[in-house]
Amino acid sequence: MEARSCIFQIITLTFIFLSTAHSTIFNFPAAFNFGDSNSDTGNFIAAGLDRLNPPYGQIYFHQPSGRFCDGRLIIDFLSKSPSIMRPFVPKMDAMDLPHLNAYLDAINKPSFRTGCNFAVAASKILPPTATSISPFSFGVQVNQFLRFKSLVLQVVAKGKKLYKHLPEADYFEKGLYMFDIGQNDLAGAFYSKTFDQVVASIPNFLAEFEAGLKKLYDEGARNFWIHNTGPLGCLTENVAKFGTDSSKLDEHGCVRGHNEAAKLFNLQLHVLTKKLKSQLSDSNITYVDIYTIKSNLIANYSLYGFEQSIMACCGYGGPPLNYDTRVSCGKTSVLNGTVTALGCSDSTKYVNWDGIHYTEAANHYVASQILSGKHSDPPFGR
């Protein structure tokens, strides 16, 4: 017990040091986000593509909030630091902006003064096909932004009362443009392609991403914040589907092929960001290594206060994965009788929430590491 206590003290002191040495203040008047369910604050649900039942949103919001999580997402913590910190996580120095409202959720939360979120769950970088769950690909999200900007500028120019709920004209140049997308392109490809075919598709994903980012640049965007993709092979859903052969799993119980593909995607994405920096010399482009942060969490989950790294908190089937594709979190199905996928007693002890998405506690940890500045290129500090 004394050795364990000593280790925790060392971790705590290390986090405090990193927070002091590398934390930063983000002086952006607004943020505009593009992505998938990792950062969707309500668009998928507002579009009528699905509905979320309790226990979604049970923490913080105390009801389903449109987020595929038990509480807040990484983007929620990046925009505004919480007052209560999880043990061994440093105080975060975020943008101090309200939570980003979903573009399609105009009735529920109509204020877009400090930005807008265009991310939609299940979205891909590539254009949608007839079998796509979400029609809101990256290109569609960019076009939604262009329409949003055009309408905002019209309203602001006319001096209508609504301007109080909309960004100032110069916010579009001074704002931060955030991206977290590509996970679904990779993960979805594994259902119909071999590993080599998935890897061969990566340049197509990134060419589409580059085109969308440059379109935003041409519209005046200058500050870009790009997340790479996490360890897909550690998501419960992928372990359940592709990890039935234990030889395909690594020492942490993750599907090795999925993680290797994610690494290759990230390597090429990093190369692309460096190319864009040289081409768009008056822009500020930050590449954030989400993969390393999440991999470290999976590998060392117990050090950060978690008890389960891969098993889903909200699901059906019990250990070791508590995941069944036929009964998603919060829903009821008829299998051998009527069954409901329920949440665990304490989601703060789990990294994975529903088999695909992280818990608020895990998102909080990831956000704290992002804001330390040590996992970004270029690194940042005070």
From TrEMBL:
Keywords from the UniProt entry? Glycoprotein, Hydrolase, Signal
Q: Which GO terms describe its molecular function?
A: hydrolase activity, acting on ester bonds
InterPro entries per the UniProt record, alphabetical: GDSL (IPR001087), SGNH_hydro_sf (IPR036514), SGNH_plant_lipase-like (IPR035669)
Signal peptide range in chain numbering? 1-23
Q: Does the keyword Signal apply?
A: yes
- Could you name the domain of life of the organism this protein comes from? Eukaryota
Q: Which Pfam families match?
A: Lipase_GDSL
- Keyword S-adenosyl-L-methionine present in the record's keywords: the answer is no
Family membership, please give it. Belongs to the 'GDSL' lipolytic enzyme family.
Q: What is the name attached to this protein's record?
A: Alpha-L-fucosidase
